[in-house]
User: Fold this.
Amino acid sequence: QIHSLSQKHIKVLFNAYAKQKGVSLSESEVDEYLKYVSGYPEQVFAIVDSIKNFGIAYANADLPNIAKMFDDDISNLLKKLYGETEAMQLVVLLSQFDFVSYDLLLQIMDKTILDPLIAKFSLYAIFETFGSSNQFIRLNPSLVDYVGRSKIKLSSKYNYKLMGLTNALIKSTDDEALD
Assistant:
């Protein structure tokens, strides 16, 4: 299972660990470093320890390696899904959103495909749910980062459906704004 933190919690951890180690950084410097952190506390520790022990120049040069620290774990997880086209498409689809409602996913994917995948993803801790009835889904930040860096694309079938829903939403918003 993948255990990572949200960006908000990673920032809190980064600031606390940097303070504990006596590493002083500006808010903008912290934000820049956090661009390379995909949710794993060990990445935070590696960056701060690198700054503390070797200096900012070395830490900056090492950022691409730190960003890839857990790619093997994520890659192994995704290998379990590679043979399942619909599963990979759901991962890519979820990576397009900060969070998405189950209802919106049902407008894009058939329930007979979506529900078994949601159950499987739950076993692998691929996402988290929230909301009053857990109706919102957020893909693990590490997977979002990995999918983005791997440039895995959404199939035209699902991309077309997503674009149609987006255009309909924009049109209905424009129509309401005119009233």
In short: The CA atoms of residues 167 and 173 lie 10 Å apart. The two ends are 49 Å apart (CA to CA).
